Structures are given as structure tokens and as C-alpha cells.
Amino acid sequence: MVGGSVLRQIRDSFDGARIECDLQFAPNVTGDRRTLIEQYYHTVNWMDAAQVHRVLQVYESVLQRQQAITEGGSESETRRSREELKKLVWLLEKDGFRWVNERIVSATGAPSLSGIKKAAVVFDARHLADQIRRIEESIEKDPGLAIGTAKELVETCCKTILAERGKPITGNPDISTLTKETLKELDLVPEGVPEKARGADVIQRLLRSLGTIGNNLAELRGLYGTGHGKHGAATGLQARHARLAVGAAATLATFLFDTHLHPKPSAVAQK
């Protein structure tokens, strides 16, 4: 993962990530650069998530330097650097990571935000796009921020849909009120499902569950996400919890946007 880095750049990258170097270690490799990197690797506890995260910081610095060359080097340097960057990104993807906005994020088990991304384009919702970017960048590195942003994403989704449908939003309604109003506007309330409809009870339970996602996200955000002061000794949640919260928010928001964009045939006929 070193590309054309010189020994000084290697040292700067690892030292900047607070990774120690065991100069007494003699790895079975050739070349000064590979030897130096292995001496840094030798001090890493690969079972410690915090130390692995520091190694990823090193990789980020390498990729960022490579990215800078592709944008500001000579024509030949740019071409070579672009090919090198593609190769490094491909290696990352093989190990379950992605290169997003000059940051390395986990691709393994990451919730899909593709549906929300499409909605952001359709509605030209820059704020929604910013929230998606913030979530993608923070799931692994700042789960609390991802959880808080997931809740904000649902709020933005509801406000966007209500505004599109000409429903004025007065005051500063909480996420529970916004979700209820949006479900009601989209005719997604359990009471709107005919009792005689096949699977009516199942559909009603699913709709009730949808209505609780917003509340649950708000509660989780209050406990562990951004936006509230906490006890000094409080510990945060892990990336897997953030993926759960983001996945729930993405499922709800995608379903709401899809319903808004594709109304029931009866609703179309009435227009």
C-alpha cells in the first residue's frame, strides 16, 4: 500500500497514526521500504480494533497523497498515479473496505443507502445528500454521529415529502409527529388497511412497526448519539449498532419516498 512513497513519508504516515516501530525486528522481506513497513506492522495488535483503525489511517494518508498527484501532477504522473490509485482501491475492496470521499469505510455489512441517494437526486435535496455522505463517513469512525444523522435523515425525509405535497410544517415538530403526519399523508396508517384484505393483520403490524422507527432512533440518539451532553464516563456504541440504526432509517425513508413517488392506482385515478 506504499505506492511511490519514500521512507520519510512512510515514517510520517505511521508516526502520525501513533504506531510504534520495532527496529529490532528483521522481517523476511527485501527492500528498505517493505522492511520498514513490516517493522511498524510488527507492533500492531491486529485483534485490537483501535490499533487496526490506526493502520487504516495510514492507508488513508497514502491514498490521499495518491489522489493529490492525480489532480495536480504532470500528465505522465497523473496517468501513473491514477492507475496506482485504482489498484489500491481494488485491494481495499477485496478486504471489505471502500474509498469514499477520501476516507476508508467498511463495506462489509454496510446498510444500503442507494434508495435514499436516488431520492436526493430526484428532489435535488442537497441537505439530504450531505446527511448521506456524513453517515457513510462516520459509521465506522464515529458511530454516535451516524446514529444522530440517521434520525435527522428520517426528519428530512418526512419534511421533504410533506413539503412536496403542500402540507405546511409549523413550529418545530419532533420526529414522532413528523413520522405520523407523513404516514397519514401517504395513507400508510394501519387503519387504512381494509380488515378483509388478504394479510391485513400482517400489513397492519408492519405499518405500526414503521411508525415506531422514528421514536426508537430519537431515543437511541438521546442515549448514545450526537446532540446531547452525557456523563463523562459514558461509553458509546459500536459500528454494528450504528449500522442497525442507519439500516432502519434507510428502510423507513426509502419506503416513504417510494410511496410518495409511486402512489396507489386508485389515488392516481382520482386526480
**Percent helix:** 55-70%
**Radius of gyration (Å):** 24 Å
Provide the succession of SSEs.
Answer: HHHHEEHHHHHHH
Distance between the termini: 59 Å
Q: How many alpha or pi helices?
A: 11
Beta-strand content: under 5%
- Which shape, going by the Cα principal axes? elongated
Number of strands: 2
How confident is the prediction overall: mean pLDDT?
77
For the sheet with most strands, the description reads: 2 strands, antiparallel
Q: What's the number of structural domains?
A: 2
- As laid out across the biggest beta sheet, the strand order is 1-2
The stretches of 5 or more residues where confidence is low (pLDDT under 50) are 228-234, 266-271
What structural category arises from helix and sheet content?
A: mainly alpha
Layout of secondary structure:
Layout: H1 7-16, H2 32-41, H3 49-72, H4 75-94, E1 97-100, E2 103-106, H5 114-122, H6 126-138, H7 143-164, H8 175-185, H9 200-224, H10 239-261, H11 265-270
Antiparallel strand pairs: 1-2
Helix pairs in contact: 1-2, 3-4, 5-6, 6-7, 7-8, 7-9, 7-10, 8-9, 9-10
Task: Write a brief caption for the model.
With 271 residues, the chain is an all-alpha fold. It has helices at 7-16, 32-41, 49-72, 75-94, 114-122, 126-138, 143-164, 175-185, 200-224, 239-261, 265-270; strands at residues 97-100, 103-106.
Please provide a written account of the structure.
The protein has helices at residues 7-16, 32-41, 49-72, 75-94, 114-122, 126-138, 143-164, 175-185, 200-224, 239-261, 265-270; strands at residues 97-100, 103-106. The chain has two domains: 7-106, no CATH class; 114-263. The chain has 271 residues and is mainly alpha-helical. The N and C termini lie far apart (59 Å). The radius of gyration is 24 Å and the shape is elongated. The protein has a two-stranded antiparallel sheet with strand order 1-2.
